[in-house]
Amino acid sequence: MTSLHSLFLEYWPHLAFVLSLAVGGTAAVHAAMTKNDVRAAIGWVGVILMSPLLGPCVYLIAGINRIRHDHISEQRNKSLKDYSGNPDPPLADVSEVAGPQFGSLKVLGDRISRFPLRDGNHIQTLAGGDETYPAMIAAIDGAKKSIALQTYIFDNDSEGRKVVDALSSARDRGVEIRVLIDAIGSKYSHPSIIRLLRKRRIPCALFMTNPLGFLRMPYANLRSHRKILVVDGRVGFTGGMNIRAGFVTAVAGANTSSDTHFRVEGPVVLQLMSVFAHDWEFTTKEALPYETWCSDEWQAASPRVPARCIRSGPDRYMVGTHNMLLGAFAVAQRHIRIQSPYFLPDQILLGAINTAARRGIVVDIVIPGRNNLRLVNYAMTAQLDQVIRNGCRVWRADGNFNHSKLITIDGAWSYVGSSNLDPRSLRLNFELDMEIYSRATAREIEALIDREIAHAEAVTLEGLAMIPFRKRLRNRIIWLASPYL
């Protein structure tokens, strides 16, 4: 024993070198073979080689995408019917409702989403918490068999407790309820709303909580940013709204933040429910029976429009929204309107936006004048010159923070939902959006964006150049960390 101990003391530097070489080499090979983005591959290999023991540990925690293999791998939830069994055929031609240039975009959506484009949906736009939360609570109060609620942030405040009260009353009526909250998003208020839900005996779960039992980091960077409410499989809500009192005028007063949400009826509700069911089963291992949670009959009001859900996230739907937007910007012929609270597109999306502008397309980009995330605002500012110098018009909206995520193309196609135009939403978060082929809906969303532009300040290259050097340097340094903001 003493001899072994002496040998270890004498040769431990050599053993450490061999161990670091083996571990570091294995991790570097894995990064080189699995990363599709050359910059990510170079970055991780560099981190690993520069710190042969610590680097592989960091890579193990933050660099390996386990979710791509684990997240239900799109093995169909056997309790949910396949959408091909729906008696209504998918919409084949969108030229009449949107325009001939959108035919190729519809084909792209078919291949990215795996959900069919369904006609017969009614979509109602809801402005902020003043309209959204009462509509959600009214739907919950009318529930007869099931309520599925998924959100990123569900604050334990006056508005959050109103939703819990409505859910509790529904549970007392015998309604089946499932509530899924992101583990990171649940920490935005203290104490967490999850305690109140459990106290009221409302079935709930946290998405991506502590998977290894002792180390929270492996999944802390992968979050469910989706917002879904489905009642009786017939009425759905989705969009950008979390559940927070700061979006309600009666509570926040002059500091009320804005957002846009959507109430939907029609076959797209089945797609919302499918996304929730997959996320719930992944989190809890519980399969939700079709008969309780879905409906084959809808009584959607007119006008009825074609729509479908687009999933994206660090699973097999990686860069789903990214690819949809590349296609949408490519087919634009007149006008692209973008409203995003966090506008940090990668170089590929920037190239698509700038190319559209150079083709003569009018590109309007609306960002908040007052942002709730200071670091993101700094990083955004560092990148704005890249779109302005190519002909895009960038507007900083006046007034309070606006959390809306809205895109329209040529007054006929709209893209709405939970995705921001930043690296986190486009690659790390689980997101849910809708593409809508409807001139009426697009005009309604355009009016919202144009209203912001009417009271906005144009961002110019001259204005950006006038920012003091120390602040421009700060912005660029923070911009380097933008993939993880």
Shape: globular
CATH architectural type of the largest domain? 2-Layer Sandwich
- DSSP helix count? 20
Task: State the CATH class of the largest domain.
Answer: Alpha Beta
Total individual domains: 3
The mean pLDDT is 87
Task: Please describe the biggest sheet, giving its number of strands, its sense, and whether it closes into a barrel.
Answer: 15 strands, mixed
Strand order across the largest sheet? 4-3-2-5-6-7-1-8-14-13-12-9-10-11-15
CATH homolog superfamily of the largest domain: Endonuclease Chain A
Instruction: Give the beta-strand count.
Output: 15
**Stretches with pLDDT under 50, minimum 5 residues:** 68-78, 211-219
Computed over alpha carbons, the radius of gyration is: 24 Å
Taken as a percent bin, the fraction of beta residues is 15-25%
Distance between the termini: 51 Å
Structural class: alpha+beta
- What is the helical fraction, as a range of percent? 40-55%
